[in-house]
Design goal:
6 strands, six-stranded mixed β-sheet, disordered N terminus, Rossmann fold, alpha/beta, about 220 residues
């Protein structure tokens, strides 16, 4: 009995130590990427003809309706994603040979614009176009959303905002043509309210009201 109690005590100490290590060392971006992919795989395995919204943390933090006109809406957001994140292969692996999506909506680009050394307009366009090509293999209907604006708030100073918006505007100017060349619909965002973010970048409730409207506008195109 004493040995049993001692064994349980050691096990408890080990479990506590493991918990402390885990809490002090949060999962790496790569761990998050793999876990999101696994969740997507499980979600897609039980859906038919889904509408997939793919992109960065703005997508991942969104709370879109569960479905529209009989098509389940699947959130494929990945925090930190950019055009260099190979989201096409990431999503294809989660699909694992299942039937095509009814629609894929791409909302991406803000992390490219906010990088310490942003990609050139040409490089961004090449990467974005390649991603649209990859996504088009998983659906016959594709849409791309305008990149949302940033605003001076928190660490986003007016100067940083101005620099970021110059890059975002450059990137956005490419999207209509990139969409057209890849058989996708381009969806512009509605005018954002004066204060539409929590921290200058990530959307607040008012920002999401406008963003959601654009996503649902794209989703509704397959309902006729």
């Amino acid at each position: 009995m004493n040995r049993l109690r001692m064994g349980l005590a050691v096990a408890s100490i080990c479990a506590a130590a493991t918990w402390l290590v885990w809490t002090r060392n949060p999962t790496s971006p790569n761990d998050h990427r793999q876990m999101r992919q696994l969740v997507l795989h499980y979600t897609l395995a039980r859906t038919d003809a889904p509408i997939i919204v793919i992109g960065d943390s703005i997508v991942e933090a969104s709370t879109l309706p569960q479905s529209v006109c009989g098509h389940p809406i699947v959130n494929a957001g990945l925090s930190g994603a950019s055009t260099a994140s190979d989201l096409g292969s990431w999503l294809a692996t989660a699909f694992s040979g299942r039937q095509q999506a009814a629609l894929i909506v791409l909302s991406l680009g803000i992390n490219d614009a906010l990088a310490s050394t942003p990609k050139s307009k040409q490089d961004f366009g090449d990467r974005y176009g390649a991603l649209l090509t990859a996504l088009s293999k998983m659906t016959s209907h594709l849409a791309t959303l305008e990149i949302s604006p940033v605003e001076p708030q928190g660490r986003m100073t007016p100067g940083l905002r101005d620099d970021a918006m110059k890059t975002i505007n450059d990137y956005n100017s490419l999207l209509p043509d990139l969409a057209k060349r890849n058989g996708a619909a381009f969806v512009a965002l509605p005018a954002m309210p004066m204060h539409h973010t929590l921290d200058g970048i990530h959307l607040n409730a008012d920002g999401y009201a406008a963003w959601d409207k654009a996503v649902m506008q794209a989703a509704a195109t397959i309902c006729s």
